[in-house]
Amino acid sequence: GTALYTLGALLELLIEGQLREILGRRRMERDIERLDGHVIVCGWGRVGRTIAQYSVGLGEGIVVIDSDEERLADCPHPNVLGDATDDAVLERAGLARARAVVAAVMDDAANLFIVVSARALRPDVFLVARVRSERNEPKLLRAGADRVVNPQQIGGARMAAFVHQPHVAEFLDVVMHEQYLEFRLEELTVGTGSAIANKSLRDAHIRDQTGALVLALRDPEGAFLSNPPSTTVLEPGHVIIAIGTGDELAVLATLV
Fold first, then answer.
1. Residue 243 φ/ψ region, left for φ over 0, alpha for ψ in the -120 to 50 degree band, beta for the rest
2. How many CB atoms lie within 10 A of CB 243?
3. How many CA atoms lie within 13 A of 92 on its CB side?
4. From the CB of residue 238, how many other CB atoms can be counted at a distance below 10 Å?
5. 18 vs 8, 14, 32, CA distance in Å?
6. What pLDDT is stored for residue 87 in this prediction?
7. What pLDDT does 38 receive?
8. Pick from 203, 202, 192, 206: which is nearest to 252 by CA?
9. Comparing C-alpha atoms, which of 61, 9, 4 is closest to residue 37?
10. SS3 content of the chain, % helix, strand, coil (to 5)
11. Could you give the CA distance from residue 256 to residue 211 in angstroms, rounded to a whole number?
């Protein structure tokens, strides 16, 4: 009787645990299916956690992919357990509806495969890849990454900026990463049907209508024009980089 009772209790615990896991996974899958325009973060390490924290602060939906079940145990976001280089895993993360994919695993080769897979499945998705070795940056770009980031290189440049221009560096950090600050930076693309398309900055009256300040423009070819003169014509495809309060930038977004 004791043996049967013990066996029954063990089976009950096993079944309840498996059932709880299955129900949790199905709930997670439903949460992912409801997301649209989200960001897929491949790799739940230090870089991936920082990306997710910043993206959530901006109101973005997040889906995390990682092959380590223990790392995902404390992940507060919808997640998929598996290899991000696998097409099926990317599809389970909602690649068909995602706005961007960040390949942020430790291995450059794995990030390369993620970029290739994601680009093949979604030619229009925005791809950002992490790289550890500078010699691999051109390979990732050729594979289809829109941007390639070397965290060590950026960290060194940021430390140098603190040495030479600490106040400027701190201001940019606060504007870009702190949500409590009244002012923030935003980028907005001028649409074909925009009310300010094909108008000069002077005629568009952006400052008067929105209160936001235009810091720079980027043309469709990728060239930047900082502190653009008032005679600059805003053409469809121009990216406006502006600074202002959340309300001012919201008005500017509507105008653009």
1. beta
2. 15
3. 20
4. 21
5. 15, 6, 21
6. 94
7. 95
8. 206
9. 61
10. 50, 20, 30
11. 14
Both tokens of 52, joined, read 């997710």
Count of C-beta atoms within a 10 Å radius of residue 162: 13
> What is the number of residues in the chain?
256
Condensed to tens digits (0 to 9), the pLDDT of residues 180-229 reads 567 788 899 998 888 888 999 999 888 888 889 999 999 888 889 998 99
Residue 155 structure tokens = 């960290």
Spatial strand order in the sheet of 213-218? 183-189, 239-245, 213-218, 224-226
- Using a 10 angstrom Cβ sphere, with 0-12 exposed, 13-18 middle and 19 or more buried, the burial of residue 41 is buried
Helix (H, G, I), strand (E, B) or coil at 194: coil
d(Cα 203, Cα 234) in Å, to the nearest integer?
10
Place of tokens 């977004």: 253
Residue 172 is predicted with a pLDDT of 78
- pTM of the model as a whole: 0.76
Q: Which two tokens stand for residue 163?
A: 């040495």
Report which of 121, 107, 38, 118 is spatially closest to residue 78, judged by C-alpha positions. Answer: 38
Residue 243 in 3-state DSSP?
Answer: strand
Structure tokens at 198: 């094909």
pLDDT (0 to 100) of residue 245 = 84
- The residue ranges of the chain whose pLDDT is under 50 are none
